[in-house]
Amino acid sequence: MDKPSNFVVERAAFPQLFAALDTRGYTIVGPTVRDGAIVYDALRGVDDLPIGWTDAQDGGVYRLARRADAALFGYNTSPHAWKKFLYPPAVRLTHARRENGAWRVMENDDAPPRYAFLGVRACDLAAIEIQDKVFLQGAYQDSIYAARREPAFILAVNCAQAGGTCFCASMGTGPRATQGFDLALTEILEAEQHYFLVQVGTERGAEVLNELAHRQATDEEMARAEKILLETAQHMGRTLDTRDLKALLYQNYEHPHWNAVAARCLACANCTLVCPTCFCSTMEDVTDLSGENAERWRKWDSCFTMDFSYIHGGSVRQTHRARYRQWLTHKLATWIDQFGTSGCVGCGRCITWCPVAIDLTAEVRALRDTETIKGA
Amino acid sequence: MLSTLDSFPARADAHPMQPRLYRAHKRHRETPDTFTLELEAAQDDAPFTFAPGQFNMLYVFGVGEVPISICGDPKRSNLLLHTTRDVGMVTHALSRIKRGDVIGVRGPFGTGWDVERAVTRDVLIVAGGIGLAPLRPVLYSILAQRERFGHVSLLYGARMPEELLYMPELQKWRARLDLDVAVTVDRGTRHWRGDVGVVTTLIPKAACDPARTTAFVCGPEVMMRFTIFELQKRGVSDENIVLSMERNMKCGIGLCGHCQWGPHFICRQGPVFRYNEIRDWFALKEI
Predict the structure, then answer these.
(1) pLDDT digits (tens, 9 = 90+) for A157-204
(2) Given B88, B102, B250, which is nearest A103 (Cβ)?
(3) CA neighbours within 13 Å on the CB side: how many for A329?
(4) Architecture of the domain whose range is B2-109
(5) Fewer Cβ neighbours under 10 Å: the N or C end of chain A?
(6) CA-based nearest residue to A236, from A173, A303, A327, A329
(7) Is ipTM over 0.85?
C-alpha cells in the first residue's frame, strides 16, 4: 500500500463484516452488554454489540448508561482487556498419566482458537504490543500466547470519546490506533448520518473490507474524523506526567508516600487482573482421586498476594506498602529496563476497578510533588 | 516405557515448559533435613549439559515444581545431582522419592558462576549451609583444571556440625595440598574440634591477594550481606564478588514474573550476579 487510504462503510453495511469474518473461520469477539457492563465476549452478529449504550467511569466507579444515539462503539474500555483471550486466565500446560506404574506426558493437542477482535481501542492495541514483547520477543517464547496471537484478526476502533479514567494521551498510546491492526474504524454519527471511516492496516484487512460495501472517503469525512479524535484527546479524564518517570520511581523506593497508599490499598489484586499488560502467572497442580492423572495449570497471579513472593522462611514482600510499590514501580519504571517500554498504556482500568479508588496518576503526582519539595 | 515418549521434544528449550522425564538413581541423606537426589534420563540419552550455578525445575507429578540448583560435576553428564532441604510440600515429596521413581525436570535455567573469568586469579568460595550445593560444581570445575587458578580456598559455615553437607568430600578436599578448606559452625558440640563462629570470621584469615581475587558466595541473604562487607574490607572489588540469589519461581524462563527483583528476573539475569550489578537492589528491603 502506497499511503494509508481511507474508506467509508455505511452503518447499514456493517453487518456484512460479520459474514466476512465468519467465512474466514474466525471466532468473533467484541463488546456486548452483560451483567451490567460492556464486556468482550463471543458475538453472533451486529445486534450483540452495545448499540446505544455507553459507560461512565471514575475512580472505583463503573456504570452503564443509555446514549441519545445508536452508536455501536460509543463506550470506553471494558472491565477486562483482550489479554483474557490471548493469555487465558487458566490454561493446562501439561497432562501426565501413569500407566503400569510409569508416567507418560501427554501432548497438548487442543487447537488454539482463531480470534477476530472487534473494537480494539488504541490503548489495548498498545497493550497487545507490550505483551508481544513480554511473551514473544524474549529468549523464551510463550507458545500458548503465540498460537493465539499470530492468527488473530484485529479490528481497531478509534475512541470518539474519552472516559473518566482514561489517560492514553499522556502515555502516547491513543486515542488513535496507529499500528498493529488489520482495519481501524472511526465511528461517525451526525444528523441523519451514521458511518465508519475505515483505515486499512494489512492486506488481510483489505480483503475483508472488499467484502463490505464501501467507497473512498471524502476530505470532509476525513476531517470530521480528525476533529473527533482531537476532541477525545483533549477530554481525557486523567493525566500522567511521564517526564523522568523511571528515574522518579527508582529514586523513591523509600518515599514515605508508599505508606499513605498502603493505608488504603486492600491488596485485592483487582488492578493486576484488569490491567491489559500484567502478565504474572502461577502454576497449579491437579490430580484425580486415582492418582493416575496429573495436570499442571497455569493461572493468572498477582504480585499483590502474600504467596507471590514466598520463599522458604517467609514472603519477601510482607507489607501492602512493598506490594503496591512493586506493582507501580514495575509498571512504570522497571518494565522499561526489562522490555524497553512502559508497562502502562493509560487505559485507566486499574483506577475504575480499584474498590477504594486508588488512582495511580494521583499517586505518581504525590510522589513527584513531595520529591520536588525534597529536592528544592 | 520409552516407546510411549517418541513424540516428546528432544531439546528442553524448544518446549521450556514441558518436563523431561528423569528416574531416581539414588537418594541419600546429607544431614537431618537435607538429601541429595541422583537422577538419570528416563526418556532420551541426550547428555545434560549445564554451567555451574544453573538450576533445574524439579516436578513431582501431581504435587508441584521447585527450582533447585544443580550440584553435581558438570563433566559427569549422565547423572544429574540436586541437594535439597525438606521444607515444603514439593521438597518433602522429593525427600520420599525411591530408586526408580520418575520425576519431571525442566532446565537448566539461569546464569552460571562463570568460573572461566576467575582463571589465573585467587578464588574464595564462601558458602553458608545448603549454599554449598550450587558452589560444589565450581569446585569440581576448578579442581579439574587446578593449575589454571591461583590460590583456592573454600570457606564453609553451617549452624551446627550435623548440618555440614558433603562430609566425605569435605574430608577429601581438606587433605589436598592445593586447596584450603576452612569450616566453621555457629554452635559447636562436644565432639566438634573445629572453628566456632559465623563464616564471615574466616574471611580475614583466608590466604588470597584481594586485588586478584574472585569470591563466589552463596548462602542466606544475611550471610551474604556480611560476607560482602568482609570481602570489601579485604579489598575485593564489587565486580569480583559473585553471588547467587533466591526468589520464588514458577517458570524459570522469565515469564511468570515471580522472581522479579527490581528490573531483574532472577531466573534469567540471575540467579548468579556480580555484586556491582545488583548493589543498589541488595541494599533495599522487600524488593
Answers:
(1) 999 999 999 999 999 999 999 999 999 999 999 889 999 999 999 999
(2) B102
(3) 26
(4) Beta Barrel (2.40)
(5) C
(6) A173
(7) yes
